[in-house]
Amino acid sequence: MKVLEKILVATDFTTAARDALATARATARVFKSRLIILHVMPVTPAEPQALATIETAVRQRLDELATETVAAGVAVEKTVLAHGSPFDQILQLADAEDVNVIIVGSEQKRPDDSFRLGVTPERLIRKADKPGSPPPPAPILCAVDFSDPSRRALTNAIHLARQFDAPLTVLHVFDTVRVGLVETPATAASDLAREQQSRQKEFDQFMAGFDLTGVQATARVVTGQRPRRFCPRCEWAGGGCWC
After folding, report:
1. What is the CA radius of gyration of the chain?
2. Nearest Cα to 231, choosing from 80, 77, 125?
3. What is the pLDDT of residues 57-108, one digit of tens each?
4. pLDDT of the residue at 138
5. Which residues of the chain fall below pLDDT 50?
6. Structural domains of the chain in order of their starting residue, each with its CATH number
């Protein structure tokens, strides 16, 4: 079985989505993957005739993207038009088709949003069992929590880094608030130091199971809030990454 046999790319036909599709094509060419191209329409109280017209236009656009993709030398397994929440529909299709990775573009965001990709990509990164990726392909940030999904994500990240000659940062974040340090400052500092040592040991054991030969890799354990530390434009990835 190929490392990235099937790639799901979700599109809303925006510039960011076009960039995501370009990244999916580039990745598929390297790994000989097949693409599934998905568009999710919101459920709206539209007139049936108007809805049918919109659906026809969307299917036509999906067919055009599929034709362009095949012309670029990449196989397209299918195009899918779904209705509902983008997050829910992306996850359902990813599970139903057993895809290896999900690629989405960043969403527009408000100035006060702490996560730079937008709501749907953020939720996918946090909740999806499949590794998720926004473009561009370098450098690469892979956040791990020692679970099986993060093990698969790191395996894919290492292959991508090797194929694209991209620097890879492997990051584990533990939240000090969740450790429950409520004693005196001195005791809390001691407990935090022990927790850091424990996490570092677990991280080292986790990383020992991966072959990083030929990869520009940096591995580190940090404290802080996961959404802020593990951000695709964060300092750990050198200012821009594929997450």
Report:
1. 20
2. 125
3. 999 999 999 999 999 999 999 999 999 988 889 889 988 999 988 888 765 5
4. 59
5. 1, 113-119, 121, 124, 127-128, 131, 134-136, 179, 181, 183-184, 227-243
6. 1-133 (3.40.50.620), 136-243 (3.40.50.12370)
Give residue 39's region: left, alpha or beta (phi > 0; psi -120 to 50): beta
Contact 85, 116 (CB under 8 A): no
